Amino acid sequence: MDTEIDAVITRFQKITYTIPWNLFLLTVGGFVGALAIKAIIIPNAFLPSGISGLGLLFYYIFPQLSSGLWIFLLNIPVFLIGWFCISKKFFFYSLYGLISLSAFIELVPWTIPFTDKWLAVLAGGVVLGLGSGISLRSLGCSGGIGILLVLVREKLGIKPGQFSMAFNAVVLGVGTFWLKLDDVLYSLAMIYVASAAIDGVQRLFNQRKLVLVITTFPEDVAGAIMAKMGRGTTLLNAKGGYTRQEKTVIMTVVDSFRIKRLESTVFTIDPAAFVIIESTFSVLGKGFSVPR
């Protein structure tokens, strides 16, 4: 049974690197994001984060062009810069994501009515975050803000969170001249909800666990982890702070599906083992995620 589960997980991990799977994620993410923008955000005069927010601000000021077209046009200079500064794989996936988002914004015909603005804030944030999170699960993204975050981090040393906050602050600040102050504040709350939704989607089925095992049988435990679970291990030299005894600490990383089996493997060999399990998101390397 365990072997079958491992085979399914391994097969799915391989699929996630394929072109059809990534295009599928970007398409679904683009549709969900467009649904949030066209059906919830625009009818309530909200501003989302990133380039989409800037595009909608231009749309509210100059409605002669459609919202989807504004978002696409404002992304063009960002993508031109990104062509020279980011990987081509990430560039082309992101370009497809942008085209999907802009096209679906033009095609979505629905409007979801809300009698309470706060319900619109919650719905818009959750749906927009869901769409963005799905797109970010691929090897690309659905808009220029993702490219800008990569550029400012690698070229200017600015933290992505700080840049994103500053960018959104400028867009919302300018928006106060054309939109109601209440709608700008509602937008700020919606951006917060969307960020939480993105984090939730990113963690879903993607939670990695960093495991540290302190045991008197390090060779046996490490061998069992590698043989029974197919996960690599690293042996670290350590010394007890109280006993001053030399110890060997086993370090490994597993996904959330295998964590209980790892615990059982360790404690079967050494019931007195000391195990530390820490959640981690980004793990790059063979058997896990690959750089975008």
Topology diagram in text:
Layout: H1 2-15, H2 19-41, H3 50-61, H4 67-85, H5 88-107, H6 117-136, H7 144-156, H8 160-175, H9 181-203, E1 208-214, H10 218-229, E2 234-239, E3 246-255, H11 259-269, E4 274-280
Antiparallel strand pairs: 1-3, 1-4, 2-3
Helix pairs in contact: 2-5, 2-6, 3-4, 3-8, 4-5, 4-7, 6-9, 7-8, 10-11
Q: Please estimate the helix content.
A: 55-70%
- Structural class by secondary-structure content: alpha+beta
Approximate shape: elongated
Distance between the terminal alpha carbons, to the nearest Å?
33 Å
Radius of gyration: 23 Å
Q: What would your notes on this structure say?
A:
By secondary structure, the protein is α+β, with helices and mostly antiparallel strands. It is 63% helix and 10% strand. Strands 2-3-1-4 form a four-stranded antiparallel β-sheet, with helices on one face. A hairpin with a 6-residue loop joins strand 2 and strand 3. Helix 2 packs parallel to helix 5, helix 3 runs antiparallel to helix 4 and helix 10 packs antiparallel against helix 11. The longest helix is centred in the N-terminal third of the chain and has 23 residues.
Quickly list its features:
elongated, 292 residues, 11 helices, 63% helix, alpha+beta, 4-stranded antiparallel beta sheet
What does this entry show, briefly?
With 292 residues, the protein is of the alpha+beta class.
